[in-house]
Amino acid sequence: MLLSRYFLPTLKETPAEAQIVSHRLMLRAGMIRQSSAGIYSWLPLGLRVLRKIERIVREEQDAFGCVEMLMPTLQPAEIWQESGRYDAYGPEMLRIIDRHERGLLYGPTNEEMITEIFRSTVRSYRHLPKLLYHIQWKFRDEIRPRFGVMRGREFLMKDAYSFDLDRAGAIRSYNKMFVCYLRTFERLGLKAIPMRADTGPIGGDLSHEFVILADTGESEIAYHRDFLHMSLAGQPVDLEGDLQPLVDAFTGKYAATDEQRDPAVEAALGEALVTGRGIEVGHIFSFGTKYSRPMNAVVVGPGGDSVCVEMGSYGIGVSRLVGAIIEASHDEAGIIWPESVAPFVVGILSLKPDDAACAAIGQRMYEQLVAQGIDVVYDDRDERAGVKFSEMDLIGVPHQLIIGPRGAKSGQVELKDRRTGERQELAVEAALARLLK
Amino acid sequence: MLLSRYFLPTLKETPAEAQIVSHRLMLRAGMIRQSSAGIYSWLPLGLRVLRKIERIVREEQDAFGCVEMLMPTLQPAEIWQESGRYDAYGPEMLRIIDRHERGLLYGPTNEEMITEIFRSTVRSYRHLPKLLYHIQWKFRDEIRPRFGVMRGREFLMKDAYSFDLDRAGAIRSYNKMFVCYLRTFERLGLKAIPMRADTGPIGGDLSHEFVILADTGESEIAYHRDFLHMSLAGQPVDLEGDLQPLVDAFTGKYAATDEQRDPAVEAALGEALVTGRGIEVGHIFSFGTKYSRPMNAVVVGPGGDSVCVEMGSYGIGVSRLVGAIIEASHDEAGIIWPESVAPFVVGILSLKPDDAACAAIGQRMYEQLVAQGIDVVYDDRDERAGVKFSEMDLIGVPHQLIIGPRGAKSGQVELKDRRTGERQELAVEAALARLLK
């Protein structure tokens, strides 16, 4: 992308309304723009990050056998009346009356709708298990929206739903999504700790939150320090095998959000206890027949009898993750994107675009990187070098190629690492080789 | 995709509520399911097609220098009051009151919102021209939703917006989108004819509809028969050059929707006149300062003066296209997808999945095609051959590999072309080579 043709309205001043660092940086980096309280437009830079996160979430859902579909944003009130949640949900549900005076609502979650689809299409246990998901905009009419996309009203969520014949099957589906979430967050460059959680308005008796570590996080957390070194990295996961041992390994150690902390257990942990702050980015639930029973989602079982299906639901806050990643990874100068979600992986800064040698090198590097399928942004604008440096750091491009007139004469450029700030002078070809490795 | 693990709830009976062929076939093929009047869930098969269309639309927008962003579904009432369209839009606008009694609406189009974003971020003519687009769900509260996704209430639209300093620039942007649309529809396998159009509630004095030919189309059209042979195919388009001659070539000949037909011109055309039926799938508008003036979207011009920007908007009905393509391409047995948007390009039918030779060949072909990045569905279910044949035709898979126990013994399979019905017996390797070419 040539920056001269892009739409990147960065801000010099920090907007007064932004209370947390991710909100400030997203506004300053020209990633989002508020249109109403808690409702945002995703400007081109922000959308690139959102789509990269979405893609990783999708790939991991697919890899674990979840099938993608797409439910609409607006739902009929009737199915929520059937499940009993229409009145229970309270004023966070955005209720809408259409021109024919029929009740609609902007879906805050989709248990009812997927149950309705399931019950009218699946008749036999032979078609179980089923794991379905969608990635769709949701709405919760928060009384006090704040923290930018971290607690917005219109937000993008991935929600998956499982349907099984019995409790054992439901646990297998739950374990699949548990491991899928660990892998998803690792690919996003995040350290996520699963914590036993309240089930709240979703219901059921088995639930985990996935909380990522961030000094600026919304809630206090406490966990066994072993979590700091636990990871799936390199471990192949056998999806047809038993995932229980893996789940046990990640749930066998103490980890609790503020409201669930246990002073006795923590005292016993002693030195092994770490406290810090975190942000919830995923939540999974197994809730048995809470929706299938009132909504009559039954299949014919192996014995010819009618069986109420066991269900679970599994959510990841896709738009919230954009803010959460920034909370976990930034410095004074701006955002530091993990490479997997960076809007651009490489940035080229031409310090003197009207210098012939600079222009030639910039253009050549740009074309070669684009040809290799690398997301690259080329700052070819007629701007001061200081502006270019600070904007490239603000928007958090991991690898930055700096082309100055002196180096350009001898075919040298600087390669800067956004995270460490390290700069290295390299010949053009060597710099390219480094980036294409 | 293994069909045994997919979610493809096809219907044997034709649903009574469906009046047109695309609606009937989308329901029967398990592509969509209605949740409220004019509001649909996209089941996995339908979503695959929707995403493929979306990708082609996106690639062509990008290729023509349009920059993607994403505006929210809900908009504040205020900006529509500013432009004067809030009251004018009528009951098709879904108006919403939130918990704080603030007025929102589910966006039916985005001229106001993009103008608001532009005026608060772009200050100088040096940042023009700008071409921005998004692909987002919209809502129009049709009084009588019908024809499935062809006239639904919640629908997916690509809408682009151009900002230029003067009329000449606005025409250049208009021409870019005009040619972009021709290319987009060709890639979708459609014959689209641009027709001079009314501007309606969007406004302005320059507008074209893109109408595709379909015997079952919603409206009567008449056009010069030369259109049947006009195409961009193979012509490289120089985006930096003058596109006016190309636009002139496609607008110089008579083409009119029912309400715009001119009996005198048609009489003069004689034999060159073709009449038929069509479906509108795109609409472009150049409307000058209709929104920038009331909303004060101005930039500093080259002379230091304040200039009201010239705007245009450009829409493609992405979800509507799914139905439109089916209207244009189907037969008695079901859908016939153009390869570019087929949910699966290759289908493997194992007529006897429990036969060892059939199973081995099916598995091998499946793995090889998947490894080559081809979208393939493998019907590995324990179903009657007749069911497999008719479902594969119903869902419209272009290339079908049929594995029977007799052929399997000698390493032979049948390759069937969905469009022509032609079947050819081939050795496994020869069939694969044909599909991988």
Automatic annotation (TrEMBL), chains A, B:
<keyword id="KW-0030">Aminoacyl-tRNA synthetase</keyword>
<dbReference type="InterPro" id="IPR006195">
    <property type="entry name" value="aa-tRNA-synth_II"/>
</dbReference>
<dbReference type="InterPro" id="IPR044140">
    <property type="entry name" value="ProRS_anticodon_short"/>
</dbReference>
<dbReference type="InterPro" id="IPR036621">
    <property type="entry name" value="Anticodon-bd_dom_sf"/>
</dbReference>
<comment type="similarity">
    <text>Belongs to the class-II aminoacyl-tRNA synthetase family. ProS type 2 subfamily.</text>
</comment>
<keyword id="KW-0436">Ligase</keyword>
<dbReference type="InterPro" id="IPR004154">
    <property type="entry name" value="Anticodon-bd"/>
</dbReference>
<protein>
    <recommendedName>
        <fullName>Proline--tRNA ligase</fullName>
        <ecNumber>6.1.1.15</ecNumber>
    </recommendedName>
</protein>
<dbReference type="InterPro" id="IPR002314">
    <property type="entry name" value="aa-tRNA-synt_IIb"/>
</dbReference>
<keyword id="KW-0963">Cytoplasm</keyword>
<feature type="domain" description="Aminoacyl-transfer RNA synthetases class-II family profile">
    <location>
        <begin position="38"/>
        <end position="338"/>
    </location>
</feature>
<dbReference type="InterPro" id="IPR023716">
    <property type="entry name" value="Prolyl-tRNA_ligase_IIa_type2"/>
</dbReference>
<comment type="function">
    <text>Catalyzes the attachment of proline to tRNA(Pro) in a two-step reaction: proline is first activated by ATP to form Pro-AMP and then transferred to the acceptor end of tRNA(Pro).</text>
</comment>
<keyword id="KW-0067">ATP-binding</keyword>
<dbReference type="GO" id="GO:0005829">
    <property type="term" value="C:cytosol"/>
</dbReference>
<dbReference type="InterPro" id="IPR002316">
    <property type="entry name" value="Pro-tRNA-ligase_IIa"/>
</dbReference>
<dbReference type="GO" id="GO:0006433">
    <property type="term" value="P:prolyl-tRNA aminoacylation"/>
</dbReference>
<dbReference type="InterPro" id="IPR004500">
    <property type="entry name" value="Pro-tRNA-synth_IIa_bac-type"/>
</dbReference>
<dbReference type="Pfam" id="PF03129">
    <property type="entry name" value="HGTP_anticodon"/>
</dbReference>
<dbReference type="InterPro" id="IPR045864">
    <property type="entry name" value="aa-tRNA-synth_II/BPL/LPL"/>
</dbReference>
<keyword id="KW-0648">Protein biosynthesis</keyword>
<dbReference type="Pfam" id="PF00587">
    <property type="entry name" value="tRNA-synt_2b"/>
</dbReference>
<dbReference type="InterPro" id="IPR050062">
    <property type="entry name" value="Pro-tRNA_synthetase"/>
</dbReference>
<comment type="subunit">
    <text>Homodimer.</text>
</comment>
<keyword id="KW-0547">Nucleotide-binding</keyword>
<dbReference type="GO" id="GO:0004827">
    <property type="term" value="F:proline-tRNA ligase activity"/>
</dbReference>
<dbReference type="GO" id="GO:0005524">
    <property type="term" value="F:ATP binding"/>
</dbReference>
<dbReference type="InterPro" id="IPR033730">
    <property type="entry name" value="ProRS_core_prok"/>
</dbReference>
